[in-house]
Amino acid sequence: MQAVQTFAINFIIRRHKSNKAKADIYARITVDGQRKEISTKEQIDIKDWDTARECVKGKTMEVKKINEHIDSIRFRIRQKYRILDDEGSLITAETVRGAYLKVQAELKGHKLIELLDYYKKIWEPKLKKGGFKNYKTTIEYIKLFAAFRFPSADTHLSQLDNQFATELEHYIRTTPIKEHDPCNGNGVGKHIQRFKRILNWAVELKWIKNNPCGEYSCPLKKSKRKKLSIQELVVLEQKQLVSPMLCYVKDLFLYSCYTGLAFVDAMALCHSHFETETDGTIWCKIYRTKSDELSAVPLMKSAANIIEKYSEEGEGWANKPIFKSITNQCVNEKLKIIQEICGIQTPLTFHVARHTFAKTVALKNGVPLETVQMMMGHTKISTTQIYADVDEEKIMNDMRGIEDKMLAKRNYLSKKSTYDTTVG
């Protein structure tokens, strides 16, 4: 009959040699009666120790941190015991102590908050405000989760694993930074992607040997980009609005439909961004705020008319914004009103105009994908390919005439077969 192994973890205190009123806290590991002890590196007043509960008495923040540290050590020692047991390894008080101390040795090195702060310090000045905005939100989420997950609100990079990434994903889904604006769907996946990129950067710095969350996956769902159909675009163009503000928002939106400019770039547009060729072609050339990539678009007459409508001459006119300042939030609110007035089914936001330019105005009228990439200022063509989805209209266009082609081939093969039979 196999003997049942005994295992216990207790916390005790030992009086400090130089100060008899102070005591050091130790974790005592007992396996089959054999004992080994580990220092917790915590020191307290002897009168504050609760021997029965094996914790520090009191309700101060400092007491809470020490007791949480004790619970953390107890959990990690027990975890090491289970791992040794699952592996069928020899279990003694010494092997459990050794396994725990090995973990402690691995914990030396850089910490998570240190990495996040250093990443922000190095990369924020390199990128435009819009390019680093989402990273700032991701970093904020990670710091909030670390404060929620760890007593010290921080952890060593060597402690990160797929469980950390799993719990981080759950935290982002269930604990939004803004209560009225929860983060769901692809937004969560983007945060996890950015978190993994930051860890990859830590590998490049040699702060860690490999990305501990590199294998964790939070797939993005492929979503169809909303854009106006040509019918909806024409309805919007022809709709007469009474309100000057609605007229202004409509023109701003249509200009983006004709050029593909993002809102922040449209707001920054000046006369100095336009160049006129000898043949009369007017170019709108602006470096995108988000990526610092050049967006160069030859203006259609409809776009040129809008620019002319809002142009004002005067001192320094070349570098003054053409469109009067307005917030993106205000524009999107007015677009909802315009959508209702026009009876348009597609939900209108300013970014829909950029999608409309890519798909409805450019790609559906035969403009090559590479050209659309340059006009939209995309760094990678894979970003532009998102807009090149296949819809029913494209299928119909591609299949148009297929019946006539099939009939012609049947007639040809039928005549050829008759000829071969006659000759034979």
Task: Supply the key terms.
mainly alpha; hpI Integrase, Chain A; 4 domains; 3-stranded antiparallel sheet; 8 strands
Description:
The protein has 16 helices and eight strands. The protein is mostly helical and 424 residues long. It folds into four domains: 7-106, no CATH class; 112-204; 230-387, Intergrase catalytic core (hpI Integrase, Chain A); 390-424. The strands form three sheets. It has a three-stranded antiparallel sheet, with helices on one face. Helix 3 runs antiparallel to helix 4 (129-149) and helix 5 runs antiparallel to helix 6 (186-204).
Order of SSEs, N→C?
EEEEEHHHHHHHHHEEEHHHHHHH
Return the CATH topology of the largest domain.
Answer: hpI Integrase, Chain A
What's the β-strand tally? 8
Query: Overall pLDDT, averaged?
Result: 86
Largest sheet: 3 strands, antiparallel
Span of the ends, CA to CA: 93 Å
Which strands sit side by side, in order, in the main sheet? 1-2-3
Overall tally of domains? 4
Cα-atom radius of gyration: 33 Å
Assigned CATH class of the largest domain:
Mainly Alpha
CATH superfamily of the largest domain: Intergrase catalytic core
Assess the beta-strand content as a share of residues.
Answer: 5-15%
The number of helices is: 16
- Structural category: mainly alpha
CATH architecture of the largest domain: Orthogonal Bundle
Note poorly predicted spans: none
Shape: elongated
Helix content: 40-55%
